[in-house]
Structures are given as C-alpha cells and as structure tokens.
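Table S2 (text version). Query chain:
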Amino acid sequence: MSRGTRAAGILGTGLGGVVTYTLYADLLLSATAGLCWGVGSALTVRYRTEWTGDPDRTSAADGLPSAFVLFVGLFGVHAGLPIPDGLRWALVVLVVGALVAAIGLGILLARRATTA
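Corresponding structure-token output:
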C-alpha cells in the first residue's frame, strides 16, 4: 500500500467519522461512516484510473458510479422522512461513504479476477 493510499484512508476515516458525529452524536454511526469513508477513500486513490477512465476511450459510462452515489445519497435519504435533519444528513454521509467503498471493493475484486 502506497503512502498516498494510506494517507487517504486515514484522512477519509477521520473526516467521515467527525462529520457524521458532528451532524448526529452517535458513536457507532460515526465509526461505521468513518470506516466506509476510510475504505472508500483509500480504494479511490489506489484505483483512481478506473474512476476517471482512459482518456483515449472516455464515455458517459465513466460518470455512472459518481452519479449513482449522488443519486442514492440525496434521494434515498430524503427530506420527507420523519427523522431529524441532523440524523438525515448523517445517514447521507454514511450511505455515500458505503457506496464509494462498495464501488472501490468491486473494482478491487474485478482487477484480482482479471489478473488471476
């Protein structure tokens, strides 16, 4: 693991946890969000070329993971839910972090399958 990947993971963990705890003071929710953001940040830095695509073969599909993350985060946990605003935004942070981590883990597994 490179220095940049490790730094992104540590920074993502801290930032995801602190932001979530600031929005809604629940330690387990904050720790889970921090874990998601840490894994997601590290894998995004490690596989950044997969996120941005090959400059010679770009298409609209390169933006689909980012669009999906934003769509689910903003519309899945929407303002119409009967929960406090702080909790709603903390859940948005958790969902977006979990999706970024899941996409990064999918990229990791796909790369392992193609190199094996």
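Notes on Table S2: The helical segments are 3-23, 27-46, 48-52, 64-76, 85-115. The mean pLDDT is 89.
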